[in-house]
């Protein structure tokens, strides 16, 4: 099963989805801004990515700059910031089985395909 955490308004996310489809893969498209992740789903995703929560943050987002920038946040606090504001999560993210990758550049998603 391949899942893409997708924001259709994001060019990189659209490109990653197109690459997957071009490879004949029909991923489950998770519109994470509408179908928000649970805390456990986010923790599992971070474990598959093998990164710290801060590494998935879009630090250029206005809400990050206004509410979180410059604060010494714990991993749990960063996770809560993402849960409260899903727009902060980097995109696209693709997971396949126990592997996951941030699709920047979009071609990175090909590296985890079965």
UniProtKB/TrEMBL annotation:
Protein name (database record): Arsenate reductase (Glutaredoxin)
Keyword Oxidoreductase (UniProt): yes
Keywords in alphabetical order: Oxidoreductase
Pfam families noted in UniProt: ArsC
Keyword Oxidoreductase: yes
Similarity field: Belongs to the ArsC family.
InterPro entries membership: Arsenate_reductase (IPR006659), Arsenate_reductase-like (IPR006660), Thioredoxin-like_sf (IPR036249)
Domain of life: Bacteria
């Amino acid at each position: 099963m391949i899942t893409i955490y997708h924001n259709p308004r994001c060019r990189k996310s659209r490109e990653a989805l197109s690459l997957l489809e071009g490879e004949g893969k029909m991923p489950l498209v998770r519109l994470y801004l509408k179908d928000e992740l649970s805390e456990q789903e986010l923790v599992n995703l971070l474990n598959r990515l093998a990164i710290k929560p801060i590494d998935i943050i879009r630090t250029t987002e206005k809400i990050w700059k206004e509410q979180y920038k410059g604060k010494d946040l714990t991993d749990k606090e960063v996770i809560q910031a993402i849960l409260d504001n899903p727009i902060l999560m980097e995109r696209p993210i693709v997971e396949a089985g126990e592997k996951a990758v941030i699709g920047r550049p979009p071609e990175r998603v090909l590296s985890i395909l079965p």
